[in-house]
Amino acid sequence: MDKETTPKKHHLIEYANGRSLEEINGTVEVPKGKGFWKTLFMYSGPGALVAVGYMDPGNWSTSITGGQSFQYLLMSVILMSSLIAMLLQYMAAKLGIVTQMDLAQAIRARTSKALGIVLWILTELAIMATDIAEVIGAAIALYLLFHIPLVYAVFITVFDVLLLLLLTKVGFRKIEAIVVCLILVILFVFVYQVALSKPDWLGVFGGLVPTTKTFSGGPNVGGMNPLSGALGIIGATVMPHNLYLHSAVSQTRKVDHNDEEDVARTVRFSTWDSNIQLSFAFVVNSLLLIMGVAVFKTGAVKDPSFFGLFQALSDTSVLSNGILIGVAKSGILSILFAVALLASGQNSTITGTLTGQVIMEGFIHMKMPLWLRRLVTRLISVIPVLLCVAMTSRQSPIQQHQALNTLMNNSQVFLAFALPFSMLPLLMMTNSAEEMGNRFKNSRLVNWLGWISVVALTVLNMKGLPDSIEGFFGDHATAAQLHLADNIAYVVIALILALLAWTIYDLYKSNKKYRLQTQNA
């Protein structure tokens, strides 16, 4: 048989060194010469996939308990986190559109093989940490809505791979639409609950202005102070996988890269899309904090886990006003909360899988079907959740709930660890005229804001690391355990700084070499 007519054999795991998310890269047509709103509509979608990461189950307890403990004090932290997110996601989308490489591909192309593998492993751990929160959120939602035992509910979350299989057949534009619909479900639930609670809107808007109390070490309420609450919100909001995802899905629109104006238009409308969707995420996170203030009596909710919040929404003794109490008796408040939690988990399933594929293809040039990628990641992620459920099976329900909540919160440690290694390369590459061209490199203002954001987030995350590691020892840790936790944290911080120095050196050396090649060409 002639070689050209021989059908190509496909394997489950293949070598990949092509365009980012090749199956959907450049597949969405966009109109030219149309009005602003029609053009924006066609560019809208990737921003929604990114915004999902800013309102996933990991954000919920930090925002709600932050509101219940400190009223509207931490509203300014949610605002600052959202503004930093807009800046970082703008740079991520611009990198993808201009260089035609996602962040993983760009890092791998500009660093040594050894560093590339280290950063790949680190990023994979961060995705699995994010997935743990999604497993816990989805499993608890199934338990609350359908009374499915937690062990079975955890196993059921594995089968969301079937949902992903279905979605891969309907086209990327429809996936974007489904994600937007799920975001609107979440938004509706919290708008409804907050509207019933009649919050103090003057206090809400006043809380948007940061004060010296925002990052203070006291007072301590329920084991949390404003600083730890702020770090929890920041850690749960700005996550590394979103930067990789946005740099890839921003390339789904057809762009004529020989036409600089077409590239500029794509960057502009992608930025509009991202900022609009992240504004929705800001509203959702604000509503979560407002719920903590306005829905519950101060300090009334002793169990900040999803179980505790679900029960509190049907417990008239902890609710703050008569309208809420009347609605709570019907059970609708708690049911809506669980529905929103399930919607959040499913949204994160879609985006987490796409991100995993981007990272695997970009860093190690390995490609596998999306359903297999999802299955592998989810099966690894359910192991710690199942162990947690099994180890607490003979304890009281409250102890089980607290253990799951602690596991979810502790899983965020990896996010704090991994975040600088996506932010720093992103900033350095988008600041480079060699990578981006003079027109698309960061402006002086964006450059300064970027460095301030990267340094501030890295310092805050490192500052919160000792407390995060202390959390692994529970609420009644001994002095020796706390000392051990602090020593571990300092070693981890030293490793982070050393790895950051290695990353900066590799990127600087590569950029210098690339500049010389460009000049000699």
UniProtKB/TrEMBL annotation:
Q: Which residues form the signal peptide?
A: none
Q: How does it sit in the membrane?
A: Multi-pass membrane protein
The answer to whether keyword Ribosomal protein applies is no
The regions listed as transmembrane in this protein's record are: 40-57, 69-93, 114-144, 150-168, 175-195, 227-245, 278-298, 318-343, 375-393, 413-433, 445-462, 488-508
Return the InterPro entries for the record. NRAMP_fam (IPR001046)
Keywords (A to Z) from UniProt: Membrane, Transmembrane, Transmembrane helix, Transport
Q: Identify the species of origin.
A: Lentilactobacillus curieae
Full protein name = Divalent metal cation transporter
**One CC-aspect GO term:** plasma membrane
On the tree of life, the source organism's domain of life is: Bacteria
The biological processes this protein is annotated with in GO are: iron ion transmembrane transport
Q: Name one GO molecular function term.
A: cadmium ion transmembrane transporter activity
The subcellular location is: Membrane
